[in-house]
Every structure is written in structure tokens, then in C-alpha cells.
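Box S1 | Example of a co-folding query
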Amino acid sequence: MTHIISIVSGKGGVGKSTTVANLGVALAEFNKDVTLIDANFFTPNLSLHFGTPPSAPTIHQVMRGESNIEEATQVHSTGAKIIPASLSLLELKRVRPRRIFKVVKKISGDFVLLDTQAGIGDDVKEAIKASDSVIVVTNLEWPAITDALKIILICKEEGVRVRGVVLNRVRRDRIEPGMRNVQSLLESEILGIIPEDSHVRKSIAMKDPVVVSYPNSDAAVAYKALAARLVGINYKAPHVFARKMRELLRKLNAK
Ligand code: ADP
Ligand code: MG
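Box S1 (continued) | Returned holo structure for magnesium ion
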């Protein structure tokens, strides 16, 4: 069975694309067949995390029937497959978001991850409807958390399962709202805690996800732990940070 998962957030800039890229390559490193689709048709940037060539066919062309999925698929060094979106302004308006459904259903493998746009517009709704579950990304700041709540309610309305929440750019300082409060407000399991880590920015500049470019960084280890959780692998990173996070997650999710 192929798990089709949209990565959503409500608020922009919280780390959806970073999560798609890193969760994707981490799943591939666990030998999973994974395809990453940039379903953010208006403000796409997944290709920038990988440095895929701008001239390659895109999801826009696939959705218009001008290209097939194989032609638009780029294969990363980890084996993760990426279907980028066009960065050209001219392409943006010429796509019907509803068509993502048909494209997604044609893809087999273990996982299909869809990167989505911020907001709660039609594009995001179509991505959600084409998925069998969603993962919500948020930062530990109220504007992001309240938007996460909105998108969770929309998923529930659409009858799509919310697998849980990924907390990204976590600093663990006094300013952040408590994770337990956030968890109970969102009524969702916390699947991962990804720290604020400057290696993420460096990896984006290097056009290779942090899991690959800085595999021992805190963010990389946290993404690998998230991937392991998704596939049910007992991942024991020899890493103080990872151990702390695992313990924190265990406590948070204990009933
Ligand atoms: P979204 O797709 O939700 O708009 P992005 O994944 O593009 O968000 O992330 C926005 C920016 O935040 C990235 O360009 C990156 O520089 C930064 N970022 C994301 N996650 C982290 C992190 N864990 N630590 C540090 N910076 C991060
Ligand atoms: Mg994005």
C-alpha cells in the first residue's frame, strides 16, 4: 500500500518544504520507495532544496498532460524521487489543482509526500483530498499554532486523517509555549521535534537536504527519528540530543 501524505501548515515559512525534503530522503535511506511532489503550484520551492535543473519537466506539465510522470521525475542520490514544480510565473495560472488527484493515484511505492502551499485555499484542499493522511508542521509560536489548528479542522471536515504534528525550529527557551499545551490544543500526536539548527540554512544553500549534507547535525538526526517513527523502525541515534528528544516525545505522547 502506498501512503500518500500531504505536509501542511496553515502558516507559511514554518518548514513544510524542509520537512518534505528531509523526511523524504530519510525514508529513502531506510530503503523506502518515496516520491516527493511539489504540489505548491503558486509558490513552489521544493526543487531549490535539491537543485533540480530548472529546464526539467515539472508537475505543471504533468497536470496539463504535456509530460508524463516518469519524464518529470528526478532521482536523488538517496533514491528519493522528486517531481518538481515550475518556478516560472507564466506557468502558475495554467494548472487546475484538482488534477493532482489523478497524478498522485498513478504513483506506486511506499510513500508519496506532497509539499503544499501556505493558507487554506483550494490548492491545499485538493492536496489534502488526494492524500490518505496529513502531517501538520508548526513552529512553537501562536500565529503558527492557530493556523495549524485551522488546517487540522479542515482535514477533519474532509475526513482525512491527521497523523500528527511536527514541531519545527524548536529552541526550547522560555518564550515558547509549552509543548503539552500545544499538543492538547491541536488534539494531535507530536510526531517529531526538529530543533532550530543553522545547518538547515547551510544545506539549503548547498541544495542538498540536511539529512544528507550534515547527517550528524541535530536537525538531521531529528528528521531521521521522524522517518523511523513513520516506518516503525526503532532508530537509536548515538546522540545526546536525539535521546533527549525521544524521551520528551515519549513523555508527551504518554497518556
Ligand atoms: P515552508 O515550506 O513552510 O514555507 P520552508 O521549509 O521553506 O517553509 O522553511 C522556511 C525557512 O526556514 C527555510 O528556508 C530555512 O532557512 C528555515 N528553516 C526551516 N527549518 C529550519 C530549522 N529546523 N532550523 C533552522 N532553520 C530552518
Ligand atoms: Mg514551502
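The CA atoms of residues 191 and 229 lie 8 Å apart. The domain at 3-252 is CATH 3.40.50.300 (Rossmann fold).
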